[in-house]
Amino acid sequence: MRRYGKNPDEDDIRVRPNRKGNRPRTHIRPKHEDASDGMVLTVDRGRLTVLVDDRIVMAMKARELGRKAAVVGDRVALVGDLSGKKDTLARIVRIEPRTSVLRRTADDDDPYERVVVANADQLAIVTALADPEPRPRLIDRCIVAAFDGGLKPILVLTKSDLASADKILETYSTLDVPYVVTSREEFTDGAELAQVHELLDGKITAFVGHSGVGKTTLVNALVPEDRRRSTGHVNAVTGRGRHTTTSALALPLEGSDSWVIDTPGVRSFGLHHVDPSRVIHAFPDLESGTEGCPRACSHDEPDCALDQWVTDGHADPARLYSLRRLLATRERRDGD
Length: 336
Prior knowledge:
Blueprint: E1 36-44, E2 47-52, E3 55-61, E4 75-80, E5 90-95, E6 101-105, E7 113-118, E8 122-128, H1 136-149, E9 152-158, H2 166-171, E10 179-181, H3 191-200, E11 204-208, H4 215-222, H5 225-231, E12 249-252, E13 259-262, H6 276-279, H7 284-287, H8 306-311, H9 317-327
Parallel strand pairs: 3-5, 8-9, 8-11, 9-10, 11-13
Antiparallel strand pairs: 1-2, 1-4, 2-3, 4-5, 6-7, 12-13
């Protein structure tokens, strides 16, 4: 074997041709101005189901996007085979700016946030009034995540035939959160389902709730089975439909431009990523009173200007209590 010293004769060095061509690499990314627009319906192990016009297209993320991941609800740009035929695969080359983001962390000490849903207008927090018992702290956490991410929270209270909704509704009355109360016996009659439809009309709504509260039953009633099959994920390898509670899925409501995003059941909702200064934006009657607060005020300390703001009659004391309860939820465990 020929060995070269520090100063080899360049004429003796053999340069192998590049089998892929001799064009130098570039860091300039293509613009893909002719890419088609789509909406991500579900994500499964690196494969994304995307709605392009009226077609369901399987796609994967382009390498040029790096570590940036697309999630359910994302508006994306695609190139490649967009026919939607079996065994075809398009490429996502751009993720459009998001109008809202629902995030969560594993717990309050976990610095790694996970984006659950993008571009949703509302967050429907599904809670059973009994069996299982309601968890107000989890509801609080979901409301905080909604306010922080730019979503409007909605309360969907199920199983009212087992317990009264009065106590829960009184707790959240000062937040002006829209709500609907359903029962197991009467939900199938159509009147309560119509109320839910009214809240969802013209919106993209993400549904969240822990196991056993009736979230899946509600989504199944809203979206007929045949419509779920037409928009559900098709495994690119087996060709079989696949959707479990381990992945979020966007489903269109029949006869409208509304969408429901069914998310996996949650046991906890970490809020490590939440900046308390963003939560105050959901309380416009209190936000103006923060001008006199000290820098980096937590809004729950002796020098907070909100106390005087309420004393002067600019806002309801119950609203300040609700704000502080929500901000304090990061220091409480879900089961409290």
